[in-house]
Structures are given as structure tokens and as C-alpha cells.
Design goal:
The chain has 252 residues and is α/β, with parallel strands linked by helices. The chain has a single domain, classed as Undecaprenyl pyrophosphate synthetase. The chain is built from 8 helices and 6 strands, in the order βααβαβαβααββαα. The longest helix has 24 residues, at 77-100. The chain binds 3-methylbut-3-enyl trihydrogen diphosphate (2 copies) and magnesium ion.
Length: 252
Amino acid sequence: MASNSTPSEIKLEIVPQHIAIIMDGNGRWATKRGLPRLAGHRAGTENLRRVIRACVEFNVKYLTIYAFSTENWARPVDEVEGLMHILEEVIDKELDELDKEGVQLKHIGRLEQLSSTLRKKVERSIEVTKDNNRLTLCIAWNYGGRDEIVHAIQNMIKDGIKPDQVNDALVSKYLFTAGIPDPDLIIRTSGEMRISNFLIWQGSYSEWYFTQTLWPDFDREELFKALIVFNQRDRRYGRLSECAEEDENNAG
Ligand code: IPE
Ligand code: IPE
Ligand code: MG
């Protein structure tokens, strides 16, 4: 792994195909500096550019970011409106650049509750970037893991699915994440150690990485540290190490 600031002797044997991030700590980052919370959300958004670049550099194929949860509607109206505005601005300002860099945008969650302007912008950005394949950036906005499962069950019933047709693979197909591999690594910044309704189905065998670092400060080096820790993990999937290794060797 050649790079300017990463020690050259460190090599990553395995790069996770899919990293998901709970980008937490924007509010505390701002409060620590005597700034309004929205300044923290802006700093967090700028940081996202850096992390997207780092993912492209490290050859990560999927990055899912938790940016607005179904529970975040319960925040003060000003903050909710500010966050919606930031998403709109990001699409306006960054779409061309992301498209040029080969980033494909996807959305998970419900778009129905967003303003029609914002909804259309999100839909357009998905359409414009649909053939890109360098990195898939999946934005979890108005996303909740329980809501996703409820939505999936409702649609299965609407489609007349019979009980004996329901299995793991079918449920996965009905989730917002259909077609996206499960995350290998889930990172949560800011020291909180909970799932907060994020990818509760898909994360069943993800490796978790928690850091005290607040999201606006979680830079390329911090991501690299997480990847090093990920490389030290033994993913057993309920088996014994030797069996898991044997299966991997046979598969590859
Ligand atoms: C995460 O930062 C971003 C969103 C939830 C939108 P927070 O806003 O939760 O920041 P803290 O946790 O209050 O510091
Ligand atoms: C999770 O962070 C949601 C996002 C990062 C978008 P929160 O700050 O909303 O989660 P809790 O309230 O600490 O669990
Ligand atoms: Mg938070």
C-alpha cells in the first residue's frame, strides 16, 4: 500500500468489501468549540469527502453512511431542517465531482417523508451515477433497521408471498439494501457503543470497530487504523477457525 502518510511497512492483507459507518459526534464536536450543532454537521459533511477519497484509495467497493435515522426526526425542527438543507447542498455541489470519480450513489430508507425537491434531487443523483462502479456510496437517510424490516414484510404480504417461500435470501431481497453485500466492517465514531437501529439484519456477522474520535475528526489515518484492526479479526461465523479458513481456501 503506497501512500504519503501511512507507514509503508504496513500492508493490508484484506480490504473489507463493504464498510458501514455510524457517523456520530458532530454535535459534540461543535459544542466543544462553542459552535452551533449545525456547524458540526457541516464539518462532518466535509469530512465525508475525505473518507470517500480514502475508501477509493484503499479499494473499498461499498461504503454505507448513516446520516439521518428514523429517530432523528425527534430532534429540534431547526436541526432537522438544517440537516435536510445540508443534504440538498451536498447533492448540488458534489454530484458532478462524485460522478467523475466513479462513485455510484444509492439510498436506503424512506424518501416519501422528504420534501419533493429533495426527493427528486436524491432520485436524480441515483439515476445519474447508476453506471459508475469504482465505489458505491449508499446513503442511509430517513433509515431505520426496524422500519426497513416492517417495509419488507408489508411488501412480501402485498406480493402474496407464502410462508414456506420466506427464507434468508428472500428477506434480503425485500430490504432497501437488496443487491448490496452485507457490511464486513461497521465503524461507530464518538465513543457510543450501540447499534441505534442501523443495519440490524445486514450486520449479523459484521465486525464492529468503535472509536472515541468524533466524526468530523475521523480522517484517512483513523480509517486506516480501523482497517488494521479489521485485519486482526478472526471471522469464524460460528465455526472453528480452521474450518472457516479451509472454506475460504476452497472458495478462492
Ligand atoms: C451524528 O452526530 C449525525 C446525526 C445523527 C445526524 P450527532 O448529531 O448525533 O452528534 P452528537 O452525538 O450529538 O455529538
Ligand atoms: C445515530 O446517531 C444516527 C446517525 C448517525 C445518523 P444518533 O446520535 O442519532 O444515535 P443515538 O441517539 O446516540 O443512539
Ligand atoms: Mg449522536
